[in-house]
Amino acid sequence: MGFIHVTVAALCCVVVVFVGFPLSSNAELDPSFYKNTCPNVSSIVREVVRNVSKSDPRIFTSLIRLHFHDCFVLGCDASILLNNTDTPTKIESEQQDSPNSNLRGFDVVNQIKTAVENACPGIVSCADILTLAAEVSSVLAGGPNWEVPLGRRDGLTANRTLANQNLPSGLFNLTQLKSAFAAQGLNTIDLVALSGAHTIGKAHCSSINSRLFNFSNNDKPDPTLDPSYLQTLRNTCPNNGPETNLANFDPTTPDTFDNNYYTNLQDKKGLLQSDQALFSTSDADTISIVNTFASNQDAFYESYKASMIKMGNIGVLMGKNGEIRKQCNFINKKLVDQLDLASVVPKKSLEEGIVSSF
Catalytic residues (predicted)? Predict the structure, then answer.
């Protein structure tokens, strides 16, 4: 969730993303999918991410966020990686919309793809690389590890409209958050667990300025903010100051993947409005989940792993659907020439809509 550093705006509607390509019959993702064809893929991904993190410690949260933003639009099919193209078919990149305007890590995904192609050409999808990179990032940041189910194939299109519609906003209240997650088949526990990825990373001041100075247009700060934390944030994000300044999601252990995100919520130190809403919404069922994760890091880790696997299953392409891209930013021309794209692209993915963001 960004999982993740964010840019925010309002959202008006939620669209279910399970309208993508159908799964092949009896197909299942499997952690051993590349056992015989690319047995070292996980270690290759890990090595690239580890090397990049030496000079860019933010890469962990960036890669987790990329996976999240991919799966919430057309499913986990690497559509987030596609650039604008006119041929062999026109694609409007999801990277150009508001919720994705500050995404990072595309170059690192391409580094991983190059390394994997050198070892196992034409075998590993970009969608699986995104999923593996998210798990590796969790581990290298000190968080949990899990066996990543594999076997995804890459999509043949992107959908900027759905990116604007489906991605939850940092300005969301709890009702809006639940609706956005439910649209992806994710429940309340998934919402709280996946939000825990905000234990690492940073957000632009533009994401929180309204909470600091003009919450609900009343020229006052958000009352759910701890006063001392409010002052700390105002020092980082002064009124009318640079909106590109960065604030840590977790003011206690900002670079470690732990459960302090939840203790921060208990202390009214959630960075985004959508973070604090998990604990400060009156009589919310999320409060008890936050309390459990705050007091038991193992419980958080177990739920986070389960929810990441569940999210990674959204709308996946398998079997003969989609393709294995040679380059993550472009679809393969040869395959497109053989297909009637109108027969495989969901109608809703061709529609235009209003802008919203995460």
Answer: 69 (proton acceptor)
- 8 Å CB contact between 200 and 61: yes
- Assess if CATH 3.10.100.10 describes domain 174-308: no
Task: List, as residue ranges, the binding site for Ca(2+).
Answer: 70, 73, 75, 77, 79, 94, 199, 250, 253, 258
Known catalytic residues are 69
85 neighbors 333 (Cβ within 8 angstroms): no
Mean pLDDT per 10-residue segment, the chain (358 residues): 38 32 57 98 98 96 97 97 87 84 92 98 98 98 98 96 93 97 98 98 94 94 97 96 94 96 98 98 98 98 98 97 97 59 33 26
Domain ranges, ordered by start, for the chain: 41-167+311-346, 174-308
CB distance 168 to 357 below 8 Å: no
Tokens representing 193 are 């667990």
Encoding tokens for residue 144?
Answer: 């949990």
Binding site for heme b: residue ranges?
Answer: 198
CA distances for 80 relative to 2, 74, 91, 182, 329, angstroms = 14, 9, 11, 21, 9
* Cβ-contact 353, 99 below 8 angstroms: no
Exposure string for 119-146, b = 16+ CB within 10 A, e = fewer: ebeeebbbbbbbbbbbbbbbbbbebbeb
107 DSSP 8-state letter:
H
The CA angle 171-177-180, to the nearest 5 degrees, is: 115
Report how many helices (DSSP H) and strands (DSSP E) the chain contains, helices first. Answer: 14, 2
Strand partners, 271: none
Q: Is the domain 41-167+311-346 a CATH 2.40.50.1070 member?
A: no
Task: Please name the amino acid found at residue 116.
Answer: V
Tokens encoding 76: 């986990």
* DSSP H helices in 54-159: 59-71, 106-119, 126-140
Entry pTM? 0.85
Largest CA distance in the chain: 61
Determine the Cα–Cα distance for residues 340 and 351; give it in Å rounded to an integer: 18
**Cα angle value 327/329/333 (rounded, 5°):** 65
